[in-house]
Amino acid sequence: MLKKLSLAILSLALVPALSMATDAGTLQKGEKLYKSSCIACHSTGAANAPKLGNKQAWEPLIARGMDQMMDVATKGKGAMPARGGTKADDESLRAAVEYMVSRVQ
Q1: pLDDT digit string (tens) for 79-105?
Q2: Left if phi > 0, otherwise alpha if psi is -120 to 50, otherwise beta: which for 75?
Q3: Helix H or strand E segment including 10
Q4: In terms of C-beta density within 10 A (0-12 exposed, 13-18 middle, 19 or more buried), how is residue 32 classed?
Q5: What is the DSSP letter of 50?
Q6: What CA–CA distances, in Å, run from 28 to 3, 19, 23, 78, 80?
Q7: Could you tell me the fold of the domain covering 2-102?
Q8: Rounded to whole angstroms, how far apart are CA atoms 57 and 36?
């Protein structure tokens, strides 16, 4: 019984990570947008932006899920303007978020 319960809990813990899994093409698209726009703040931590590769900064955001991260990316937060100040479509914006998340997993 305990073994089944542990397996069920582990499965639930993996759901957010699995929902963010992407293919190489999406990650390349995300990296391109990151390098053209997001890098300014997410490479330095300017205005409290979570730095690329900083697992500790990204973990609470990842725990909230992709929908929450996309809401922030789309609408902006703090000094970050909506869509990171770009005209990126939802697919490209999501690819950039997924790229940044992939750098800490």
Answers
A1: 999 999 999 999 999 999 999 999 998
A2: alpha
A3: helix 2-19
A4: middle
A5: P
A6: 39, 18, 9, 27, 23
A7: Cytochrome Bc1 Complex; Chain D, domain 2 (1.10.760)
A8: 22
